[in-house]
Design brief:
There is one protein chain. Helix content is 55%, strand content 12%. With 228 residues, the chain is an alpha+beta fold. A 5-stranded mixed sheet has the order 2-1-5-4-3, with helices on one face. InterPro entries: DUF484 (IPR007435), GAF-like_dom_sf (IPR029016). Pfam families: DUF484.
Length: 228
């Protein structure tokens, strides 16, 4: 036991001597400073206590910032969920292909504050209106070779598109579109939402709500076809 105590005392002196020679040590290992136990008495050592306190304050400030971000994200997700619910209700009330298509564009434009909405629907439905926001594609997916990879994968995408794809989707308005969210509507077609803001839709954005919107509209279109 005596040998152990001597060893501990020797090691403590070695550590103390090392710290005296390297006063910058704790600045390089701040996590160590935060774990040290400081004496209560006043003296030069109190500066380290101040450092620990400031370190804790900085960590608390960072945690508060992260918490505020999470709260804002949760609030935005709640608003999006309410809009998706409103879209679902509107589509449940639709009883024809025309009303379904018009409801999609109206709700996305109003509730989601979208600038340009385009529906590209496979097939030829005579009851659908002639409108800038609607394209009927009698040849189906094969008639859109520029979107072959997107249609094959079936996953929503967001970001910037080539000039060729923008022209196919938005026609004369393509030059105004700098970012796009695009969803496959099952076997019914494609939904594209365009924005003049290049940062509105970015690669890597979460696709949960885009998938929900896609599934809702796909089901509504299928239902309208069955009814008619």
């Amino acid at each position: 036991m005596t040998a152990t105590l001597l060893d501990d005392a020797t090691q403590a002196r070695v550590v103390a001597a090392y710290l005296k020679r390297h006063p910058e040590f704790l600045s390089e290992y701040p996590e160590l400073a935060a774990r040290l136990t400081m004496p209560r008495e006043q003296g030069p050592v109190s500066s380290l206590a101040i450092y620990q306190l400031q370190s804790l304050r900085d960590k608390n400030a960072e945690l508060e910032r992260q918490l505020a971000e999470l709260i804002e994200i949760a609030a935005e997700n709640e608003r999006l969920m309410e809009r998706v619910h409103s879209l679902t209700v509107a589509l449940l009330r639709a009883n024809t292909m025309e009303v379904t298509a018009r409801s999609v564009v109206a709700k996305l434009s109003a509730d989601f504050h979208t600038e340009q909405v385009r529906l590209l629907l496979f097939g030829d439905e005579p009851q659908l209106p002639r409108a800038d926001w609607l394209q009927q594609i009698p040849g189906g997916a094969e008639a859109l070779p520029e979107f072959a990879e997107f249609l094959h994968k079936g996953e929503p995408i967001s970001g910037r598109l080539s000039a060729e794809k923008l022209a196919r989707l938005f026609g004369p308005d393509a030059a105004q579109i700098h970012s796009v969210a695009m969803m496959r509507l099952g076997d019914s077609g494609i939904l594209a939402i365009g924005s003049a803001d290049p940062d509105r839709f970015q690669p890597g954005m979460g696709t949960l709500f885009l998938k929900m919107i896609s599934a809702t509209i796909t089901a509504a279109l299928a239902r309208s076809r069955d009814v008619s």
